[in-house]
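Review form for a predicted model. The reviewer records the input and the model, then writes brief findings.
Reviewer: anonymous (R2)
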Amino acid sequence: MLGRADRATRPAGTRIRRRCAPRNPRSVTLSAQFVAMAAEAALMVLLPLVLWPWAIRRMGLGRHGWATVGYGCVFFILSQIVETPFRFGLSYLGLVAPPLGGWLFALIAGLGEESMRYVAMRWVGQIRERLDRATAIAYGLGHGGFESLALGLSVLATALVLRNALADPGAMAQLPDATAAQARVIAETPPYVFFGGVVERAFAMTLHVGLSLVVMRAVLRGSLVFLGIAVGWHAIANGVALALQGWLQNGVATEAWVGLAAVAALVYGLATPEGETPAASGTS
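Model under review:
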């Protein structure tokens, strides 16, 4: 407040300019965005945790269903281990720039995940001996569900790191440039946009269920043609999504394509006759 002497000597109608501390160009406010990211992460984690028990009860799989979901989780992790050297190889060769880099990464994902899906269904006895539509669906839910859970925890970790860093006024200046840039992008993103990640995970889980049904055909019929279809489908789904995002910068168009590819894979996978089981096809 102004002292009485100041007010007495200050001409009427004049304003005093208050000195404000210069704004840190790295300063960012993430209140609404942090809440949205936390909600997005929670939904991505809850999605598989709700779907797994519901689907297992619905299909009457019991312990076999839980074991199959578990194998789906394990072989998803193995697929990432298989893919990692090839990703590093692309980076070493300088082949990461779009659009070629996006398509190469999409092909690596298709080869890695679908080959591990085939290995699990072909050589894991607990899956192979009871391989049918319900088992393939449970496997796909495990594969896609674990990915959703892992990404949800990653989103939450990112939100917490940025939130904790911004709680200290001087911490933002100490963040790496890439992290500070990410914080600014997040701060400029409308909160509702973050929930697109939940929709994407739902579509991705649908895609993994459909591709699991396609790979089931490859195992039951002893034909690698269907494995090739699954690899190609996976690579095209990812590659087109990356290309659309790069060209249009439109998340709605990208998610629409992912949803279309996922539903198409599920419909094609479900076209497998119900009676096509190891016993019916004469395999063991």
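Findings: Residues 27-270 form one domain.
Further findings: Confidence is low (pLDDT under 50) at residues 1-27, 278-284.
Recommendation: see findings above.
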